[in-house]
Amino acid sequence: MVKRIFLIAFIFCLGSSFGQTKKVDPKTKGKGKGKTEATTTQTVVEEPELSPMEKLESELLPEWVLEPNSPKKVLLKDRKRKNDSLRLALRTKLKKEAMTFAVKTKYPKKPNEKIQLCINISAKDTNITYCVNDSICKDPEVAKVLYEKSVGDTTFMLVYVDAFTKSKSDPGLCNAGHETKLFFARWNTKDNKAIWKQKTISSCIKGVTNMTKEPVANWDKSSVLNLSYHKGSNFYDLKFDPEHPELGIQSPKDSEPK
Fold first, then answer.
1. Could you tell me which residues come within 8 angstroms of residue 39 by beta carbon, excluding any fewer than 6 positions away?
2. Who is most buried in 149, 194, 225, 226, counting CB within 10 A?
3. CA 92/CA 7 separation, integer angstroms
4. How far apart are alpha carbons 59 and 50 in whole angstroms?
5. Cα separation of 42 and 50, whole Å?
6. What is the pTM of this model?
7. Domains of the chain: which residue ranges?
8. Weakest mean pLDDT among 134-138, 165-169, 191-195, 223-227
9. How far is CA 119 from the centre of its chain?
C-alpha cells in the first residue's frame, strides 16, 4: 500500500515538472547557442566625374536610328549637324577658357580632398594649370601676370596673387588682412612641364608683413623688382631681375618663409 502511494506521488511530481513553462529572459532571447546574426554592409560606388565633353555627349540625342523591321541603321543628318554645332561651340568655349589667365580657389568635392589655389597660364597656343593646397589665400581679389618672357621653348612667368584674409580659424583678428603671394614658373611649352616656386610676402594668418616700398602690382617690369618683408623678428629681402628671368626669385637667405 505504501509503495503504491509512493509511486502515485512520484508520477504526479514528474508530470508537473514536464508541464511547467520555461521562462525566457527577454535580454537573452534570440541569443541561443550557435545562432548567427546576419550583418549587411553597404558599398558606395562613386561615379567618375565626367569631363565637359563627356557630359555633353551623354545629353545629345542619338544620331543613328534603326529602320522599322530592319537591323539597318540610318543617320539623321539634321540631328547630326545640330549635335556637331553644339560640340564645336563647347570646344571653342573650353579652348578660350584654357587660353585665359585665371587664378581660382578649387573647393573639395570629396571628404579626402583639400582646398587648392589653382593658376592657369597660357603661351604659344598651349596652357598649363598649377594647383597647390592652400586654405589661407582663398578666392583672390587681385591676380595678374607681372612678367612674361619666352626664350626658345621655355617661358618664364611671374604671377602676383592677393586676397583678403578669409579663414574660419581666425577669430576676427584679420578681417582687413591680406594674403599675398608671388609665383614664379619656368615652363617648357614643348613638353608642357613647369617648375613652380612660390613666396609669401604678406600673410596676416602667418604673421608675415610686407615692407616693400612700392606696390608690387605696379611694378614697371623693366627695373629689378625688390621685395622686403618680415616675419616675427626676422627680415627678408627678395629680388627678381627681368634681364635674367632664368634666375627666378632670388634671395640672399635660404630660411625665408614659404
1. none
2. 225
3. 106
4. 12
5. 24
6. 0.72
7. 137-247
8. 165-169
9. 13
